[in-house]
Amino acid sequence: MHKTIMSLGILTIIFQTSCHSAKEEKEDVGKFLVTSAITLDTAFTKEYVTQIRSIKNIEIRARERGFLQNIFVDEGQFVKQGQLLFRMMPNQFQAELLKAEAEAKAAEIELQNAKMLADKNIVSKNEQALAQAKLDQAKAEIAVAKLHLSFTDIRAPFDGILGRIPNKLGSLIEEGGLLTTLSDNRQVYGYFNVSEPEYLSYEKDALDRGNSNVQLKLADGSILPDVGTVEVIEGEFNNETGNIAFRARFPNENKLLRNGQTGKVLMKVPVKGALIIPQKATYEIQDKKYVFVVDNKNKVSSRNIEIRGEMPDLYVVEKGLKPGDKIILEGVQKVDDGDEIKYEYKQPLDVIAHLRLKAE
After folding, report:
1. CA 263 – CA 32 distance, rounded (Å)
2. Cβ–Cβ < 8 Å for 335, 341
């Protein structure tokens, strides 16, 4: 019996200790740091999906129908302006040139005879003129034959990198048939679409217009070291999307970028009266952002918000909050919808000065 009493005493102590610990933990969890959404004039960096285009990108096609006799280059090779790339079988055009030259020679002899006879008044000057015209025509035929023959040698029109070569040696290439592509990637363009409000902010903000620099985020998440510049804005808006196209130029000294790549242009967008909250005050469910709003009775409620833009440690809120709304700053993972809490309020500007990203 004595052992039974001792056991009950121990259980009582354990139970009391457990209740006391749970009570202390609940009290600790009930203390939260709270701040407010604040309105500021600022600028945030926004990502825009972009398509990379070479400053020069062309298709190289056959000018004449014929068999592909020589391929002097390889796919992906860098070539210089004027470098010989392909040769179409020239036999037919060489024969046409020889024929034209022979006809020109005969016309020249005929002209000499006509001139001699005209000088002796045996034939009229018209006969000489006709012989001259015949020679001129023969010379024109030579020029055309040389031009056609020159088309059998396909050369690079500028420095660049070759694309795929779809045909093999001996292939019959039709007139206009695709031989390869050529891209000048020393600099590239990034095209991206901007909404009308962002376009207006960009155009109205004189300081930001003076600094039109943008960055490029690549597909692997890395940032291109070379800074780009917005240099062209399209002349009209797309009626279906309400967007307008911007074009930025990026240096490509290390030849990393190629025509057709994708990425994201990072551009600073000025915002007047932006509603700002710390990122650490939010949590995410199924790709949607939420905050816990504290009412005047100290009760919290979950609220979905829409994010317009992002800065280091901060979000620019589009919808879901208004200036002065109190939100839980720290402890968003420790509270449930409808809880009544105790909190310590911290001024928004003071919070912004001491931000850390992760929610606690």
Report:
1. 41
2. yes
CA-based nearest residue to 307, from 293, 298, 322, 320: 320
Spatial separation of the C-alpha atoms in residues 239 and 246, rounded to whole Å: 16
Residues 114 and 127 sit within 8 Å (Cβ to Cβ): yes
From the CA atom positions of the chain, what is the Rg in Å? 39
Mean pLDDT along residues 22-51: 75
Express each pLDDT in 95-134 by its tens digit.
676 777 777 787 777 777 777 776 777 667 777 777 788 8
Measured between alpha carbons, how far is 260 from 253 in angstroms, rounded to an integer? Answer: 17
- Alpha-carbon distance of 277 to 313, in angstroms, equals 9
Token pair in block for residue 319:
């919808």
Render pLDDT for 49-68 as a digit per residue (tens, 0 to 9): 999 999 889 999 988 888 88
Distance CA 239, CA 65 (A): 44
Q: How many CA atoms lie within 13 A of 128 on its CB side?
A: 14
Beta bridge partners of 244: 194
For residues 63, 69, 73 and 76, what is the CA-based torsion angle, rounded to 10 degrees? 70
What the block records as the tokens of 156 is 């690079």
CA distance linking residue 58 with residue 114, whole number of Å: 52
Nearest to 189 by CA among 209, 219, 216, 211: 216
Q: Is the dihedral angle over the CA atoms 71, 72, 77, 78 positive or is it negative?
A: negative
pLDDT tier at 193, thresholds 50, 70, 90: very high
pLDDT value at 92 more than 50:
yes
Q: Which has the closest alpha carbon to 83: 71, 91, 94?
A: 71
